[in-house]
Structures are given as C-alpha cells and as structure tokens.
Specification:
This protein is an alpha/beta fold and 262 residues long. The protein has 10 helices and 8 strands. Strand 7, helix 4 and strand 8 form a beta-alpha-beta unit.
C-alpha cells in the first residue's frame, strides 16, 4: 500500500505524518508528502520520505490519500480522486461534500486529536456507503497507527465524539493550567507545580490505560478513609462539574454541526 498525505506539514498533517513515519509497519519508501510551499524541513528526521508540491504526482503514486490540507483548499485541488481511498481529517467536511468535491465515493471521514503525533489519539471515523471491508481494514490500520480508532455510523455521532475527543486535549489543558495556577497560589514554585500537576495527570491516564478500575471506583477507593483525598473531593462535589461538562460538550457539538459543509 502506497500512502500519500496532502497537507503533510500543517498542524494535524504534521502530527499524523510523524506518527505514521515512526511506526515500523509503514515503509518510508511507500509514503509521499505534499504541501504548497515545498518546505519539508520540519520532517528532516525522516529523509527517506518522498515529497512533492505537485499533487498530481502524489495522486499517481498513492493508493490511499490522507487529506490534511485546509478545508478551504479542497476546491482548489482540481484532481480526480476516482478509485482512490480518501481519509479526510478536515474539520466540517461531511462525507457528502467530500464525495462531490473529490469525485470519489470511497471516503473515510476521521478526526484525530493532537495526541496523534505520539500515537495516542482517540479517532472517530465514518465510512461512506460505498466503502467495503477492505477500505475499513486499511482505514483502521492507518488510524490505529496514530492511536485508537472508533467507527461510527452517522455524522451526528461523529460530531458528538469529536466534541469530546477531538477537542478534549483543549479541555484538559485548560483544567491542568488552572490546577497549576491554584498550586502556585498555595506557595509552590511554578516549575515544581507544573511538574507535579502534569505528572499527576499523566499518571492518572496510565492507571486507566493499564486496567485500573473505573474512575468512579477509584474515587470511592481513594475517599473511603476520609483522608486528604476525601477532603479535596468533598470540595469538588460542591461544584456541578457534570453540568459544566455537559454545557462544554453541547457547545462544542453545536459548533461542530454549524461548521459542516453539506
């Protein structure tokens, strides 16, 4: 399988390119990148990757194409993608709009998050009606190389999960920043507060990744003896956190729906 990545040095394109290039199941000789500028210096650590500014060259080379350019650039591609499997990571671009714009009915709509660079993204994806089992298998192979993929059946479900996982790093970064600032207010120096809070967030993720109990059970176990954790959680219970996160997700979902190109 030969893979082309259009927009390989953009924000998401770069994260995906680095992750796939670091995955040993993909040969660098089977990957071609394109961008408009011709500057691929940000990928100098992968000298064996092919690159071009001519998307026709990339189209002829590739069996599968990851579309990671700006959504506004799609109409300017002027390429016939017929018989190509397209994996789009373009925000707001629906399956229907992509079929019309790209002249291909083998479309996978996917939305990784920025953790894709480190192969730990959670990526929902949606298949066009004409995608077959082979298309799905190829899409999963690529998307699982940047983390964990999850197939959905509707655009609505896709947007709901995007509002959680696609935007999620922004939410947790915001919470982490506030955690750090609150720690500093207690007299901890900024560098120590930053290290302690980030490592604690990271460690919590690792607990669940490696089979720890559900979050609710962890809270129960850590507050059972009315110690330090219990006193802190007691304060958290005074805040309607679930209601706040419901509003966060609903606002993001509404925005995702309004962004859709139909």
């Amino acid at each position: 399988m030969k893979l082309g990545i259009i927009g390989a040095t953009g924000h998401m394109g770069l994260a995906i390119t680095k992750s796939i290039s670091n995955n040993k199941s993909f040969s660098h000789s089977d990957i071609m990148l394109s961008n408009a500028s011709g500057n691929f210096s940000v990928l100098s650590e992968f000298p064996n990757l092919k690159s071009t500014t001519d998307n026709n060259v990339l189209l002829d080379f590739s069996d599968v194409i990851i579309l990671a350019c700006r959504p506004s650039d799609v109409s300017q591609l002027n390429l016939d993608f017929e018989n190509k499997l397209i994996i789009s990571v373009l925000a707001g671009a629906t399956i229907e709009s992509l079929i019309q714009a790209l002249s291909s009915d083998h479309i996978v709509r996917a939305m990784p998050n920025l953790a894709a660079e480190f192969q730990v993204s959670f990526t929902p994806y949606l298949l066009s009606d004409n995608c077959n089992d082979s298309d799905k298998e190829i899409a999963e192979r690529i998307l699982n190389a940047i983390g964990e993929s999850h197939c959905v059946s509707t655009e609505e479900e896709f947007n709901k999960i995007t509002a959680i996982s696609g935007a999620g790093p922004g939410y947790f970064a915001f919470i982490l920043d506030q955690f750090i600032e609150a720690s500093i207010e207690q007299g901890i120096d900024r560098e120590t507060a930053k290290k302690a809070c980030i490592q604690t967030f990271y460690g919590c993720g690792e607990l669940f990744k490696h089979g720890c109990d559900s979050p609710a059970e962890v809270v129960t176990n850590m507050t059972r003896y009315k110690g330090v954790t219990a006193m802190g959680v007691e304060q958290l219970r005074l805040i309607p956190i679930k209601d706040i996160f419901s509003k966060v997700i609903q606002a993001a979902f509404k925005k995702a729906n309004s962004n859709m190109q139909r």
